[in-house]
Amino acid sequence: MAASNFSLLSSSCSMCNKLNPLLFSTQPRRRISLSRSYYIRFRNTRFTTVAGIADNGVFTSPEVAKAFDFTAEERIYKWWESQGYFKPNLERGGDPFVVSMPPPNVTGSLHMGHAMFVTLEDIMVRYNRMKGRPTLWLPGTDHAGIATQVSVPNIDIRVYGVAALLCPNLGFYHYYIAQLLFSAQTRVSDIAAFCTIMVLLYHSFRNYSSAMLHSATLPKLGFLRCCILRYYLPALSSYYSTPAVIILLLQLSSCYSCYYVTTVTTTLHLLLLLYSCYSAATVNACICYFCYSCNNCPAAATLLQLILLHASATLVVERMLAEEGIKRADMGREEFTKRVWTWKEKYGGTITNQIKRLGASCDWTRECFTLDAQLSRAVVEAFVRLHEKGLIYQGSYMVNWSPKLQTAVSDLEVEYSEETGALYHIKYRVAGGTRDDFLTIATTRPETLFGDTAIAVNPEDERYSKYIGKMAIVPMTYGRHVPIISDKYVDKDFGTGVLKISPGHDHNDYLLARKLGLPILNVMNKDGTLNEVAGLYCGLDRFEARKKLWSELEETGLAVKKEAYTMRVPRSQRGGEIIEPLVSKQWFVTMDSLAEKALHAVEKGELTIVPERFEKIYNHWLSNIKDWCISRQLWWGHRIPVWYIVGKKCEDEYIVARNNEEALEKAREKYGKDVEIYQDPDVLDTWFSSALWPFSTLGWPDVSAEDFKNFYPTSVLETGHDILFFWVARMVMMGIEFTGTVPFSHVYLHGLIRDSQGRKMSKSLGNVIDPLDTIKDYGTDALRFTLSLGTAGQDLNLSTERLTSTKAFTNKLWNGGKFVLQNLPPQSDLSAWTAIQDYKFDEEESLLKLPLPECWVVTKLHMLIDAVTMSYDKFFFGDVAREIYDFFWADFADWYIEASKARLYQGDDSVASVAQAVLLYVFGSILKLLHPFMPFVTEELWQSLPNRKEALIVSAWPSTSLPRQTESVKKFENLQALTRAIRNARAEYSVEPAKRISASIVANAEVIQYISKEKDVLALLSRLDLENVSFSQSPPGDASQSVHLVASEGLEAYLPLADMVDISAEMQRLSKRLAKMQTEYDGLMARLSSPSGQYLSIEYCEIFQLHSRNQIISVYLQFVEKAPEDIVRGVREKAAEAEEKVTLTRNRLAFLQSTTLMSNQAQ
């Protein structure tokens, strides 16, 4: 959290004492103290991790720590960084492995998308580093032009005077709302009306004091709030800024009661996340809400944490300016950019530090920022070269326009939402016709009719064929005529089948107009108000003009009807405002020739996309590519390197140069030494600089730069599949164009992270999981491992259950390390360590000499190394994670560690040394294989192992093609099958865990030979009496009185029943159990066979809460004919399960009875 938050908090808290009684109950109530010291404690416990150093150094051994301490992660990371392990080591030689990190926005904060790409890229980087390749993971951040500039508001100091004039008696509350509404360019009359509505709402709430909120009044209050959320707020959002709506809800929800605080807080959380309204105003209101909402409610506390976190990361510049009452336009470009640079230097490292928290082993000494001098030089050079080749041009075309931001925005920055609006039906009279000659047009945006240049109908629509070729009169334009034309593009079934063509304000109309040669008429200013083309409506906001126009159409009889209509509304990703399609003069890049080269790169195999199916998407987009609009009407970003001549038209006379001096020199050569020039005020699209990222970060355009020579082209580009064409394809095109080489050989695309129900993580759904919170609760390793389990290009369902399971895996790994360390000889026992080090597991001869369990686990390890190395190379990271997990948990921990105890606990050092050597070898190898996924816990464990000469992060990857003994795997699997069979029998007969039983093992001579050698292991794993375990090739004499087990083909066991249970007591228990089970089974069968349904209807009785027999029969007769199959099927399944249990129990009882009889006969 930024230190500047304290001033915000203190000022906000002082405001709370001045709030109008409108907002809060005047009755005494316990409040929360929000002192500076409280927030310091609050901040420290919520957002930071203690970074203390253990008394014994950087690392902590499992021998002294019960579990892995997540707080160790930060100090381990700092140690790695301090040792220089993240830098590429060119002395190793070999082909470098290079990854360019997708640059997150400098204004951003960590989310699961970041966690996903950091995890996957770090896995690649750590793996290749351990493979011995010079490895560079180059980090950086993007200047995020719109995301940064949107932080600066247009707040007019006159707001306070207007608000005070309109509502002098309403205090801070309406003062606050009026300020926000005025800043959203709302008319003064609307502010007054809005304040009136607020008063009415207040009176609806004022009678609900905390004393009155009992069970009778609570539903009323809840219903009123629900009405506000359901009906009032959505309508309000259409006309007022989202922060105003959020603050309204905050203020209304703060009054009187804590009963609904959790629900209201959840709603606020969703609104804030959905619209990213973390302005200073919203922060203040949320703090007030927290102060007055119910006794330190955890939900309210969570909300405040969210607000403070995002506020500190994204909107510091807004607070800086708002506190001074300064408008960006009044400040000027130079001062504004200076302020943003100041903010960037102070707070821009937030996202970087959060990425470090994920364990990213980037070379931070090479960290780049897209506005750095070197990268800016590359951007200018790219623009100049493209222009020199004729690939950049200026023209007026349709773009996505943001009236609030006053800039064009890319398709990526436009989000479409399903919203309920209106479909307006309007009469267009036919020129020269009668009163009955008119066309009815249905439109969702009637204000654009001033820009109509034609009316179109389908040529096959008989209703309008007689009007084709005539002229229509555009309503409210004083008789302006437009032609009525025909085109198959018109959908006869949509609306009335008549289409108004407004090419200046609709993408489809624009394309149609260009095809038909229609004029393009623009009726809107850049701020969303109507221009002089709209006549009397000039100067009105687009939405206000819509209301006024419809009203006057109704008065003139040209309005037919207005009906509710659900439509896809384009909204700005940043501000939430509705985007306006607008024809605007912009700079464009011609893409056809660039796209052709990028297509060939995939065709020739120079670029591989993983997974392969995304090649079709890549090819489709490049084959249908449009020219790229690269200019943005912002101040923050790369200034377009174009200069104009003072006194000349921009379209005709301009100069493209690398800097102002070069531009002036060119201008003087052409226009004389007294010429004056000025630079284009626009900046380049952020994606333009991002398209150069793989090579601009390595020194281009200086191709002699060391990093460019050593590390370009890069190896892998990893990112989300959703920006395959927005970013990846553009990098490929630019890389080939400027360097002649594809910038990377592989593209790895990950999927989306979804919630446990498979839903997309959405701010509106409130199912977003914060990575930092997850790290705090589960640890970084658990989060990384869970995220890695997905498949390339496939979405991953993330749940707390998965995270809990992975956290348990971390603990299992820690406990495994503890067991290994506790069973190693002291460092002072040189002879024991010499014996351990004499084992050479990479030699086949040594492997064959190992006992069966040791030979088995080493063989399985060597097979695992080969499998996961191949999967690593193929980018099958999910397979790697699962294979290592299964081997460690199922093979090493569950089987070998338990088997090793038979040697370790005998007290014979010569026997124990082989187990100690295998434990150390296998566990160390597991740490190496797992390190790219779980770097922190594996490094901590590695450092605790004896005789480690280097850090795990730079240790050598295990060799592949190591010797293996597959026969030992089959033999040990037989031993495992025998152990499982004995364990199952013990469980079936409820043998006490501590009780050791006898066993006779029957097999052929070959099997007996290797099984008998591991008698100690079998006895330990199966809880057998070592003195009473026998091996033979034929059944024992008491076989008839023993439990017979078939472990596998040719391997059987006989367990004397008398050793396992008290036969008489067991027979009594089974008899009672059998009687009960038989009764349950008979009841189920009766339900299925009863014609009256009286038994089956008991199911319905439970469902419908019916009690009398008549009710049951009545419901049955009504329901059984319609849909009884699901219930009947359920009863049949229960009956089949019950029958199986009855049969098993009866057979066991019969076996016990026969055993008793034979025993009596023998006596």
Summarize this structure briefly.
By secondary structure, this protein is an alpha/beta fold. The longest helix is centred in the C-terminal third of the chain and has 38 residues, at 1125-1162.
Rg on CA atoms, Å: 38 Å
**Alpha-carbon distance between the two ends:** 84 Å
* Topology, number of strands: 29
Q: Mind summarizing the main beta sheet?
A: 7 strands, mixed
Structural class, by secondary structure, is alpha/beta
How many helices? The count is 44
Averaged pLDDT: 79
Overall form? globular
* Percentage of residues in strands: 5-15%
Helix content: 40-55%
Q: Runs with pLDDT <50, length 5+? A: 1-56, 151-245, 249-264, 269-284, 287-316, 1092-1107, 1116-1123
Protein name: valine--tRNA ligase
Enzyme class: ligase
Domain Aminoacyl-tRNA synthetase class Ia: 76-152, 315-799
EC number: 6.1.1.9
Structural notes for this entry:
It is a single chain. This protein is α/β, with parallel strands linked by helices. It is 50% helix and 13% strand. The strands form nine sheets. Strands 7, 8, 9, 10, 11, 12 and 13 form a seven-stranded mixed beta sheet that branches. Strands 6-5-14-16 form a four-stranded antiparallel beta sheet. A hairpin with a 7-residue loop joins strand 7 and strand 8. It is globular. It starts with a helix and ends with a helix. Residues 76-152, 315-799 form the Aminoacyl-tRNA synthetase class Ia domain. Keywords: Aminoacyl-tRNA synthetase, ATP-binding, Coiled coil, Ligase, Nucleotide-binding, Protein biosynthesis. GO terms for molecular function: aminoacyl-tRNA deacylase activity; ATP binding; valine-tRNA ligase activity. It catalyses: tRNA(Val) + L-valine + ATP = L-valyl-tRNA(Val) + AMP + diphosphate.
